[in-house]
Design the sequence.
């Protein structure tokens, strides 16, 4: 997994502590998280938010910075640790539980929440969730799009720069590559906009 995020900094100070992606270790696995949007539930970063079975006695992860994004990430990890104290469940069970947690975050705040995130679980598994929207006073729509590239790899032209990429020159014959972005990056067909409330899992590409 490779995550890159250019932050507009709508919440929290401009500081190293607030730089995405955030990372933590759970069950000996490195988790990473990048978020685009606004979450009223986590607007007050001094207030602990307990998701799932989390209680004040089971909190293990706390935000270092002052963004709603990192607070949400820590709350998700605390919920995972409380729900699965023995360790990582199967990926299908993990996917189902994360879906439930996302519903809990959105519940009662669907109109004010913009919640698009990438959650990396170890080296090969990535979850992408989209609850799109536009900030007040803005016409910019924040959502997620994805494309999966498989052999035979071809070329694609970037949308914002006069440049064409030959993917066969930067991949191996058996590679499978998923790209998840806010907006499509290339002119090629195959980009799909994620549906509102959709949680996708990408495993091994």
Sequence:
């Amino acid at each position: 997994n490779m995550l890159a995020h250019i932050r507009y900094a709508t919440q929290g100070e401009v500081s190293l502590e607030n730089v995405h992606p955030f990372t933590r270790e759970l069950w000996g696995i490195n988790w990473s998280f990048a978020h685009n949007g606004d979450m009223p539930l986590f607007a007050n970063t001094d207030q602990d938010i307990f998701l799932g079975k989390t209680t004040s006695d089971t909190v293990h992860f706390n935000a270092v910075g002052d963004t709603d994004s990192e607070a949400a990430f820590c709350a998700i990890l605390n919920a995972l640790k409380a729900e699965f104290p023995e360790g990582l469940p199967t990926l299908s069970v993990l996917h189902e539980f994360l879906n439930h947690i996302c519903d809990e975050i959105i519940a009662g705040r669907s109109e004010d929440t913009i919640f698009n995130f990438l959650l990396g679980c170890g080296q090969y598994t990535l979850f992408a969730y989209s609850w799109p929207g536009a900030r007040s006073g803005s016409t910019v729509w924040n959502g997620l799009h994805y494309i999966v590239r498989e052999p035979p790899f071809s070329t694609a032209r970037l949308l914002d720069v006069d440049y064409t990429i030959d993917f066969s020159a930067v991949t191996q014959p058996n590679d499978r590559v998923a790209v998840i972005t806010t907006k499509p990056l290339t002119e090629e067909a195959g980009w799909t906009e994620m549906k509102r409330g959709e949680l996708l899992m990408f495993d091994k590409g």
